[in-house]
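As a next step, we paired sequence with structure tokens, yielding the entry below.
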Amino acid sequence: VIVVASGTRIVLLIVGAISMAILSHTDAFTIENIETFDTEHILDADVARLANIGERDTLLNLDENKIREAVMRNPWVGSVDIERVFPDTIRLRVNERMLGAVVAMSSGGKAWLLGNDNVWIEPLKLEVDESESSNDVALAQASSLGVILIANVPANVAPAAGCACTDGPIQAVMNIAAQLSDEFKNRIVCYSVSSEDDISCILDSGVEVSLGSDTNIPTKEMVAMRVLNDYEGQVTYINVRIPSRPTYIS
């Protein structure tokens, strides 16, 4: 009985596969409707345009990977959910890339949005008047967006929309953030990055902590916290580049 049942199942699977193969080369289940949805930064019409579903595409022969790759050309797109709704509808739902940081360059008053997956999204326009610095404006923008500011980034960092950030100074900041405790990290409003070996952070109290490179970060944090606690409200600058010999300015 088991052998017969197994054999019958195999036959049904083969028949089903052959039927699907035949149907996928016919006009059955041709896509007549494309359902898309607006997100904060992407219009539904743009999603449909990027998907570029052809007149002869059907629910059976649709290449989902091709659709995803096409829609993700928009750097705001983090992922795409594709649902086939028989008999004639495809539903595309975009999940936006989450913001991770505002990155402000050291010259030219330029800034970029960086995703939390370390992908460059798009330039950020900074409206700077005579009474403000570009960093002040960038910090206000970052604060309004609920993300960190990475400022004074070297001019050789060259963002490109939709591309992964592989620049050493930015990677060093990410390495530092990954090693900090949540308590300390939540107090940081800005990183200043002159180079990979010259990184400091500014706390919500206004105190600047010079960290240097991305090495020995837990030890550097511990020393900085000790100085902050011992001289609460009295210091404006702490240097823990060499954690065994910290210095501070009151």
Notes: The chain is about 30% helix and 25% strand.
